[in-house]
Amino acid sequence: MVDIGSRIRAARKSAGLSQEELARRADLSLNGVAILERGKRTDPHVSTVNRLAGALGVPAQELLGLEDLGKAQAPISSTPAEEAVEGRRAILDALKPLLRYIEQRAKEYEEELKDENGLAFRTASTAILWTEMLNKEAQGLSTLLIEEAKPYLSGSYTSAMTAKEKLLLNVDLLRPIATLFEARKRADRRIAKMPDMTDDLAKIRRETNQKARLERQRLERQLKEIVEKSAA
User: Fold this and answer.
1) Rounded distance between C-alpha atoms, residue 61 and residue 151, angstroms
2) pTM across the whole model
């Protein structure tokens, strides 16, 4: 299986760029680009992937190894009810690589959260930084999911979609992202019990929680609106 470092290197060479030129265009450090290409880091933040994709002129999903995204075929059914079900399934099939990637990232965060001796939760300060990193990745992946879903929420995919199928589609698309936000909530409960929690850190924690709540509400509202409008 080709790793993300190899894909970045291949895309860079195809674009005729040196590591230094790529780093400058993506506003990253030369060492950071080199580490990624050597495979020393295999789980870059989604914002880093987006920067690299923009600098290389390729889709982010290509660097993530999600090249099959969007290759599902339009539904072919004989009744409106079957078309509604098949339309939802076709959209989910098209987005499956990205949804699976989000699920994998959520699983990795969960594993870190369960690690009693992990560095992330050694102090309240590092734990809050960890939750902020999770929030940023959840926000980036939410935006990517919405943008990738838009082309499929039209035409033959949604023309026969019922209110029930719209609701189910919304739930299915939100589920992986919701898992990330749930991990953040569990992390917050753990942070609240940490003995080195100061007033200043408690304030940062409250602000982080508020940002996460607003982001989740924004995602749910935006995705619901897109699904409802496209299937109207």
Assistant:
1) 15
2) 0.62
Amino acid at 40: K
Cα–Cα distance, 127 to 186 (Å, whole number): 12
b/e burial code for range 14-27 (CB count within 10 A of at least 16 → b):
eeebebeebbebbe
Residue with tokens 């290389």: 56
SS3 141: helix
Round to whole Å and give the CA distance between 81 and 71.
Answer: 23
Torsion on CA atoms 214, 43, 118, 140, rounded to nearest 10: 0
Each residue's pLDDT tens digit, 80-105: 556 556 777 778 888 888 888 998 99
Burial level of 44, CB count in 10 A (0-12/13-18/19+)? buried
Domain limits, CATH 1.10.260.40, in the chain: 4-63
Closest CA to 231 of 173, 150, 142: 150
Residue type, 29: S
Burial per residue of 201-210, b for 16 or more beta-carbon CB atoms within 10 angstroms, e otherwise: beebbeebbe
Tell me the CATH number of domain 4-63, given options 2.60.40.10, 1.10.260.40, 1.10.10.10, 1.25.60.10.
Answer: 1.10.260.40
Q: How far apart are CA 179 and CA 99, in angstroms?
A: 11
